Amino acid sequence: MGTYLNSGNEKFAEALNSPIYVDKTELVTYTNKVLHTSQKYLCVSRPRRFGKSMAANMLAAYYSRGCESKELFSGLKIAGAASFGQHINQYDTFFINMQEFLSRSKNIQELLVRLQKLLVRDLLQAYPDVDYFDKEDLIECMQDAYQVTKRPFVILIDEWDCIFREYKEDHVAQERYLDFLRDFLKDKAYIHLAYMTGILPIKKYGTHSALNMFDEFSMTNPGPLAEFVGFTEAEVRMLCREYKRNLAELKEWYDGYSFENVPSIYSPRSVVNAVLSGICDSYWNKTETFEALQLYIDMNFAGLKDDVLSMIAGERVPVNTGSFSNDMTTFRTEDDVLTLLIHLGYLGYDFANKVVFIPNNEIRGEYVNAVSVSEWGEVSKALKNSADTLRAIWSLQPKIVAKGIEQAHFETSHLQYNDENALSYTISLALYAARNFYTVYRELPTGKGFADMVFIPRKRFADKPALVVELKWDKSAHGAIEQIKNKQYCRSLQDYQGKIILVGINYDKKSREHSCEIFEID
């Protein structure tokens, strides 16, 4: 058993021993299916905190000849697959964390030399009796070992894209690295599986990719691997039952990544932290300055500022992901910035409709934090004043509420502001601070219709009143209040024991002013 060749299963065992382990071993069913086929090259890109390394550790524990893992996998889903016993611990497996080599190298050439020397060393120690043609050539040594042993290789590369994050502007270094990976992996009969994982999809340069043999499974299109991106709703529901947590609250905070066949994917690390602690909060890692959100939203592309504010308010924004160069420096349009934010996990992506959106409360909070220290100057007074607007509702001061909505309207004036739906984005921005205290529902089914917006206090804030908000366009705020009463919108809150505040808001298209009426129910 070497350092990189046929390493053990300790890291996977550690994951199994953790307080929360969600079984994702059916990924192995897929990799077994593509072993030794034309589809054996997989590049799986995910944001940080989405379990990429854990998946790679699992694959290493399963395929590596350096350990016995049957007992570890025996109670897991993969154990029931027909291919389970056929492939477990049967392959010479190189497991490489590219970030480790990067941190110990001064440049890309030194990294590649160090990588090859260490992998060759493991190979010579494992098979010392092989007659190696060139002990300094990794590919030749692998070929020689395979000719003697007839044991195929599985190659696992974690953090494969760290070179593009560290050497952002060095295109020569990037191309040298891609050329190495192509020579290392492409058209090698002795490689039966190559699995790379990182944040970015495969880098494109020139008219083609050096690694065009790879199938890519990314945040824009994870294909059949969608259920392995994060936790599914069924998995989170199971954790909520076990730990007695509120599924609706976890959903609002950490759900929102959606794919064609898996409509609900949760941020896994955040869910684990929230379930174990019992507190829904932001667990986003703020230390990775190379992918800081502020850096990207400060880019001066036409429309980017307006679209970010629209998404904070709840709108979805069209995007073209096709021009993205799969790096962190080549930005030609706003679409390139938005596409990078998809891959970093800061945006959800609707593949069918080609739109992006902020997926959940945790990420929305990151945008608000970034906007507050951005170069946008006074552009987000509505966000800064949203706490005052909320307090004005609690204290039944409709004129102050209307003023706060006016500020939010000024910031969302680029929207087609001609119906209640557009008005709801403005209200969401004006009442952003309400998300700290409430679970927010849009178009909630009620007694005889749908309330536009309903704010239900979270358990920790049971002293706050529930809010039922009805929006009108070119009618009257008083009519909005009467509609709430006449259609018995509050019947849906009959299990709620506290105070309820009714809020009617109207926008007059002639005067271009908002009016507000507030009514309290004990």
Taking all Cα atoms into account, the compactness measure Rg is: 27 Å
Number of helices: 21
Strand portion, in percent?
15-25%
Give the low-confidence spans.
none
End-to-end CA span: 71 Å
Count of strand segments: 15
Shape: elongated
Oligomer: single chain
How much helix, percentage-wise, in residues?
25-40%
Mean pLDDT: 89
By secondary-structure content and strand pairing, the structural class works out as alpha/beta
Biggest sheet: strand arrangement: 2-3-4-1-5
- Which sheet architecture does the biggest sheet show? 5 strands, parallel
Note down, in words, how this protein is organized:
- α1 crosses α3 (52-63) and α7 packs parallel to α8 (138-149).
- The protein is elongated.
- The chain contains 21 helices and 15 strands.
- The chain is of the alpha/beta class.
- A hairpin with a 4-residue loop joins β11 (438-445) and β12 (450-457).
- The mean pLDDT is 89.
- The chain has a five-stranded parallel beta sheet with strand order 2-3-4-1-5. Strands 11-12-13-14-15 form a five-stranded mixed beta sheet, with helices on both faces.
